[in-house]
Specification:
The protein contains 4 helices and 2 strands. With 120 residues, the protein is an alpha+beta fold.
């Protein structure tokens, strides 16, 4: 999450004192960043998890955050489109993936591939 998003969220939801605003690098250990293990009922990730090197490791970090009955609200593209590559293909993270067993040739995960991936 960029500082801009945190700032906009703080402005939009400032009337709600129970909301906290912090950045999380999901590729680093959440506990080392001051987040509590299994303490979050909801984790929201919108078009961001694909911008990590290893989705299995990333989802493991998400699991570390989620309470036992917690829910991940995930929005990600699942079909590579060339126009998408042209629009965001030069941004940090787009081609960062190293988990070629899950994503053999593109940052986005094809429909259903995680359901069939070992450990997925």
């Amino acid at each position: 999450m960029t500082p801009l998003f945190v700032s906009k969220a703080r402005k939009k939801f400032g009337a709600f004192p129970f909301v906290s605003y912090r950045s999380l690098d999901i590729e680093r250990d959440p506990l080392a960043q001051g987040f509590e293990a299994h303490a979050y009922d909801i984790v929201i990730a919108a078009n961001v998890l694909h911008a990590t090197a290893d989705l299995r490791r990333t989802l493991g970090s998400v699991r570390t955050l989620l309470a036992s009955e917690g829910v991940l609200f995930l929005l990600e593209g699942t079909r590579p489109l060339r126009f998408g590559d042209l629009i965001v293909g030069l941004t940090d993270g787009w081609w960062k993936f190293e988990d070629t067993g899950v994503r053999p040739s593109h940052a986005l995960v094809a429909n259903g591939i995680m359901a069939h991936a070992p450990g997925g």
